[in-house]
């Protein structure tokens, strides 16, 4: 109700329990990279369908009920393509979201399927009316038009426990993040325009599910 003019970037980010759902999934990246460094992949440690660490399943683990519900949903249905929608920027990001060098805030960290992820992100970004507009201006200080309005998540800012990385490593689902708009809280009157900006992108993205082996 405050509208975008009076709401900061952190408004609505955390649940009632104080958990940021966007960073609440199990960190499978660190376990994989440690195993790779010790030459344990793939004969002793898998590089896909990585199991959830035991600590994450404990009753006292800081895992939101919403996160547990989504994980159960992902395990029940074998999704292969997914997108989660955010606000506050105009860009499409793709895994990995966590930088391989743990102390680096930004580092290009591609997956073995980087070409496919870049294609999926590009399909969405090029059909998005706001991103593709010739009058497009940066939302903040990052000019994503230089990169075609897509970026490797870790090369933007590192995130441990993201849904994208978890989906990819735990269930083999190819998931991207779509930052829909510079405005995190558009007014009701602006929603029809937001829908038009994203309608074709959503349809084209879903069609990519047919591009497999």
Structure, described:
The chain is α/β, with parallel strands linked by helices and 213 residues long. The chain has one domain (21-208): Aminopeptidase. Helix content is 34%, strand content 9%. It has 8 helices and 4 strands, in the order αααββααβααβα. It has helices spanning 29-37, 54-57, 65-76, 114-127, 129-132, 153-156, 163-171, 191-207; strands spanning 81-86, 91-94, 150-152, 174-179. A 4-stranded mixed sheet has the order 1-4-2-3, with helices on both faces. α4 runs antiparallel to α8. The longest helix is centred in the C-terminal third of the chain and has 17 residues, at 191-207. It is globular and about 55 Å long. The model has no long low-confidence stretch (mean pLDDT 92).
Short description:
The protein has 213 residues and is of the alpha/beta class. It has helices at 29-37, 54-57, 65-76, 114-127, 129-132, 153-156, 163-171, 191-207; strands at residues 81-86, 91-94, 150-152, 174-179. Helix content is 34%, strand content 9%.
As for the CATH topology, it is Aminopeptidase
Percentage of β-strand residues:
5-15%
Please report the number of helical segments: 8
Q: Structural class of the secondary structure composition? A: alpha/beta
CATH superfamily: Zn peptidases
* Rounded radius of gyration (Å): 18 Å
Helical content (DSSP H or I, runs of 4+): 25-40%
Distance between the termini: 47 Å
Q: Mean pLDDT score, rounded?
A: 92
The CATH class is identified as: Alpha Beta
What strand order characterises the main sheet? 1-4-2-3
Task: Report the strand count.
Answer: 4
């Amino acid at each position: 109700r405050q509208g975008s003019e009076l709401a900061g970037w952190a408004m609505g980010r955390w649940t009632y329990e104080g958990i940021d759902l966007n960073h609440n999934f199990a960190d499978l990246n660190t376990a994989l990279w440690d195993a790779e460094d010790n030459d344990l992949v793939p004969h002793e440690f898998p590089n896909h369908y990585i199991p959830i660490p035991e600590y994450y399943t404990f009753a006292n683990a800081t895992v939101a009920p919403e996160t547990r519900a989504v994980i159960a949903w992902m395990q029940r249905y074998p999704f292969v393509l997914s997108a989660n929608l955010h606000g506050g920027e105009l860009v499409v990001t793709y895994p990995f979201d966590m930088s391989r060098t743990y102390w680096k805030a930004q580092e290009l960290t591609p997956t073995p399927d980087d070409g496919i992820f870049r294609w999926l992100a590009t399909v969405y970004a090029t059909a998005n009316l706001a991103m593709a507009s010739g009058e497009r201006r940066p939302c903040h200080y990052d000019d994503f038009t230089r990169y075609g309005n897509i970026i490797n998540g870790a090369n933007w800012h590192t995130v441990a426990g993201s849904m994208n990385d978890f989906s990819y490593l735990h269930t083999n689902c190819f998931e991207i993040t779509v930052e829909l708009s510079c405005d995190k809280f558009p007014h009701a009157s602006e929603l029809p325009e937001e829908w038009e900006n994203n309608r074709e992108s959503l349809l084209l993205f879903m069609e990519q599910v047919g591009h497999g082996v």
